[in-house]
Design goal:
- The chain is of the alpha/beta class.
- The chain is built from eleven helices and seven strands.
- Strands 1, 2, 3, 4, 5, 6 and 7 form a seven-stranded parallel β-sheet that branches.
- Helix 4 links the parallel strand 3 and strand 4.
- Helix 5 packs parallel to helix 6 and helix 7 crosses helix 9.
């Protein structure tokens, strides 16, 4: 199990895949990367049509490090999902068709109790599906800034660490408050959260994405860093869902690339998963 000293002094890195369960193609990619130990963790979107496949894979293989990707948005034009809460009102969270909206604009007016009830239902559903959640994070940052404290409250309720950085690339002004609440509740989080870009001004080639990833790895600071990305294969299914499919395919190839793996080894980065962070947090609270 990781020790707090190593998390503070060593360059510890979580290589993390978002959007597990989004579609069959993404599931195939993430499972392959996890099974090859090319990445260390993923998070499940229980709202999505292919979440059951992902959850069953995680339940069959307890070694897989899978958290819950708390979801309140549904960004694609023709492929949608919505709440999992079945016995409660969610009218401030959905559009006229019962789906989550495509962006986070609705969150400023979303009813806090509806948000809490829906996200609690998502975590509980993941557990009923057989997943042993290792952490919590948030799809498209929909909890920032209006409901960010809730992430800490849910983490305390389920004794899980969270994706949060006191110094994110895009600040909301609530970072100090959330950091204080996390410290008071004994909730662990990374020192830094980095992401490969969701979009680019121009569709990049594989080599430019690879060089960006290598630079990020080489510039990792001491402490715990999460590097997140959205890997997938390039099937007709994914191409029908999103125009970002070339980037997602590149991100799948990245962490199987011998050059990237060599940089990780040469830089002596300590790859860990969220489960180690969770167990450290729970050992404190015991």
């Amino acid at each position: 199990m990781a020790e707090i000293r190593s998390l503070e002094e060593e360059r510890c890195v979580i290589l993390h895949a978002d959007d597990f369960g989004m579609c069959h193609t993404t599931n195939q990619a993430i499972l392959n990367l996890l099974e090859k130990r090319a990445i260390t963790s993923a998070t499940l979107m229980v709202n999505c049509p292919w979440s059951l496949e992902a959850a069953r894979a995680a339940a069959r293989n307890p070694r897989l490090d899978v958290g819950v990707h708390l979801t309140l948005t549904s960004e694609w034009d023709h492929y949608k999902w919505g709440p999992v809460l079945r016995n409660g009102n969610v009218d401030t969270l959905v559009d006229e068709f019962g789906h989550f909206p495509a962006n986070t604009a609705h969150m400023a007016k979303a009813d806090p109790e509806q948000v809490r009830s829906e996200l609690t239902a998502q975590i509980e559903l993941a557990i009923r599906m057989g997943v042993d959640p290792t952490h919590l994070d948030n799809h498209m940052g929909s909890l920032r800034p209006d409901h960010h404290e809730l992430l800490v409250e849910l983490a305390a309720q389920f004794a899980l660490p969270i994706r949060f950085s006191p110094n994110p690339a895009h600040k909301t002004g609530k970072e100090a408050l959330v950091a204080r609440l996390a410290a008071e509740r004994g909730i662990l989080h990374p020192h830094e959260v980095l992401s490969l870009p969701f979009t680019y001004a121009e569709t990049p080639d594989y080599d430019s994405i690879k060089q960006l990833a290598i630079r990020l790895l080489r510039e990792m600071k001491p402490g715990l860093t999460e590097l997140l990305f959205h890997p997938s294969l390039d099937t007709e299914e994914l191409k029908a869902i999103t125009g970002t499919w070339p980037i997602r395919r590149c991100e799948y190839d990245l962490f199987l690339d011998p050059d990237v793996q060599d940089v990780i080894a040469r830089e002596r980065l300590s790859l860990i998963g969220w489960r180690e962070v969770r167990e450290l947090q729970r050992s404190w609270r015991a």
